[in-house]
Amino acid sequence: MPSPIKFCEIAGSVRAKRARRKEARPGELLAAALDLFVEKGFAATRAEEIAQRAGVSKGTLFLYFSSKEELFKAVVRENISVRFPEWRAKLESFEGSTAELLRTFMTQWWTHVGDTPVSGITKLMTSEASNFPELAAFYESEVIQPGDALIRSILQRGIVRGEFHPVDLKYGVYTVLAPMLFLAMWKHSFGPGKSGPNKLVPEEYLAVQIDTILNGLGVRPASPLNTKQLP
Amino acid sequence: MPSPIKFCEIAGSVRAKRARRKEARPGELLAAALDLFVEKGFAATRAEEIAQRAGVSKGTLFLYFSSKEELFKAVVRENISVRFPEWRAKLESFEGSTAELLRTFMTQWWTHVGDTPVSGITKLMTSEASNFPELAAFYESEVIQPGDALIRSILQRGIVRGEFHPVDLKYGVYTVLAPMLFLAMWKHSFGPGKSGPNKLVPEEYLAVQIDTILNGLGVRPASPLNTKQLP
Amino acid sequence: MPSPIKFCEIAGSVRAKRARRKEARPGELLAAALDLFVEKGFAATRAEEIAQRAGVSKGTLFLYFSSKEELFKAVVRENISVRFPEWRAKLESFEGSTAELLRTFMTQWWTHVGDTPVSGITKLMTSEASNFPELAAFYESEVIQPGDALIRSILQRGIVRGEFHPVDLKYGVYTVLAPMLFLAMWKHSFGPGKSGPNKLVPEEYLAVQIDTILNGLGVRPASPLNTKQLP
Amino acid sequence: MPSPIKFCEIAGSVRAKRARRKEARPGELLAAALDLFVEKGFAATRAEEIAQRAGVSKGTLFLYFSSKEELFKAVVRENISVRFPEWRAKLESFEGSTAELLRTFMTQWWTHVGDTPVSGITKLMTSEASNFPELAAFYESEVIQPGDALIRSILQRGIVRGEFHPVDLKYGVYTVLAPMLFLAMWKHSFGPGKSGPNKLVPEEYLAVQIDTILNGLGVRPASPLNTKQLP
DNA sequence: CATGAATGAGCTTTCATTCAT
DNA sequence: GATGAATGAAAGCTCATTCAT
After folding, report:
1. Which bases of chain E are contacted by protein, using any atom under 7 A from a CB?
2. Nearest to C8 by CA among B1, B16, B11, B15
3. If both were cysteines, with which of A103, A150, C158, C216 could D225 make a disulfide (CB 3.0 to 4.6 Å apart)?
4. B58 nearest nt, CA–C1'
5. Is the pLDDT of residue C97 over 90?
6. What is the number of structural domains in chain D?
């Protein structure tokens, strides 16, 4: 005779299976939404299409996200916002030179953001910001400001430790930001169409930019503006 | 009492005026479309609004352009490729130092392109490139490649004359391009919403970037990466 | 050879025909909307159905009325609001006794409102008021208040001329209103299902009510509370 | 350490409690539905909300009632026909004057029906009658006809005892009914929104109506049509 | 029995495009 | 050529109803 415990365990696992399914849905929807938003833009992506790609019906999407805008915000939070604490922690525990810190930061950004679909969000927001003011404000406070603060902290660290010239932080931030934004935009607009000898190799481009920035900040690198010296 | 024929003669002169304006119609539509596409984006601009601003009816728009997409393509085609010959001529007749040439080039770009509605085309194209691959290819060959060649020529001039380090031109071009593209995008997306102490002043930003680039190219400027030295 | 005048006349008539068509649309839509709103209620009536019954497409409806609520408001204005000025004029130019005025008012109301689909609006608003607060507020100011004022004026006239007892106008108004509202409600809810000897004959019911009211107001009628005396 | 069996015993007692509540479920659902239908109307009440208020899940609701419409019908059926036997008994054992009986009847109706949520049923039924013809017929025979008979009996009593004029009972009934229906409708539609000097005070309104009716029936009250005589 | 995750028909509203005039 | 009334395909979102657990 099966012990009653058995019964209770089964009841528990049933609920657990359902719960697990329910918990998986948002993730599947967010993944589908990220792909489609990046591919077609916010306005041009239909809610039903996202649901379809996630393997659920239109109604289910709205069971988990109260509107298309909320879904987009969740995509941003899930893929960008959540990274800032980790990045900040890394920054604060970093022990090497600030030049190395900046280099690490920008390189890692490329590996973990720029070279993934997530960078499409940056392109998308830059493109559609003016049409969705509420979304733009959200992105401003959720991504731009923390990102700005992060870069600012790095530069500040370099200045405080006497590694960098005391620069105007406002433009220092943009100097770091511009190449990253440029890469994100390029990758998602003209990048794909380009090939041949002029094709931009992001890692190389970024390395050149980092050297240039560090040079501008007073740190003497081996070779400014390019890695491969012409003969 | 005026004969009714008189009235119809007036109608005739109206017709004449119409005929005269007929030639101008596409141009007026293109101008209106440019303004609106830049202001609100492609999807958010209503065909009727364009027609209204051009002073014609919705039907007339579709008489000249078979669809909204075709109109968009025409807008982009019509507003580019026009300045390159002039710029190339200026470049070739320039007599000062190449540092000065580069500074002039970027400053003039801001004055005559970046800070005018024309920069909206850049933003527009970058935003919509993935939705109009055919147009993106056209833009690539009509704008990006000539622009690339122009900047390349400037850098080459500097290297040949011994003013610049011999850098890898491919990345040198992007180093010049990125701040310009960044400014154009910023101006048309998050720029307008921002104010306060962090507001980007394009002329200052550009000056900082120019100094940094020239510094990276081996030209020693007075103050790298910032204009206002901290004490 | 046809005179040019001919041409101009034709052009004129063409425009006229179109204009006439355009002017007819709102009326057709309003008529269809009245029928359907009364038949099925505001919420349960689909916009497309209204358009269909008016012989146009869904889109056309929204060409003339910016929303379903606006369409409803227009139905109310067209069928009720517009009558108040006329009614007020009649009231002010009426020369007979106030008893006769009240009798005329209520009888005419039945003929021109109560016994037409328009009374369905009253039923509809009473039923759905709490679900559409904005509509309820509109109806309150557009119909209830003017109606209240009209009845109030009649009673006032009777009191001033010494024909009626000086009653509390607030309840006087409701005393007049209640039978009318009752009839409207009855007709559109239980009325249709009832037949046989107990079936309410509105004209008779109204006559009895008028007598009762006048009696209550101090005017001595021939037979209070009923017209047909039992033997 | 408590044996796991204990836990399952608890589960067992939970099941017992469930079974006990099972009997109550339909009642709880009906009560919740009554409240919500009255408050928001049939269409605007969401099934889930009813379930929530009854403390069960959406699925359970459909276990007991096959559809929202069936639930509505059950709500109406459940809340009527209960008071008539009691009222009829009171009527038949009443010993005072018929004027007093009528006054008592209408006053008590207000206290025990009109001024309670039950009057919401009246409003509900009147509003939705045309959408539920079957239910309307049911209501007609279960509520309207017994109510009609009750009022008819009162008037008959007055006439037989020589207290009232011999009136046409058909319209006499509606004369009594109309103010009550009016109050019920008013309370649930425009009533709540209104305040200020024109706000209807039900008890006063009813008193005025009773006086008027009695006056019409030949019973001389102190002050017809109003309670507060102007000087 | 009870649950609640999932469904999808249905609603209002928008707007590129057509075509009779 | 020019007009603008008319169209109808979408789109976002809701909610009664179902059914696996």
Report:
1. 1-21
2. B11
3. C216
4. F4
5. yes
6. 2
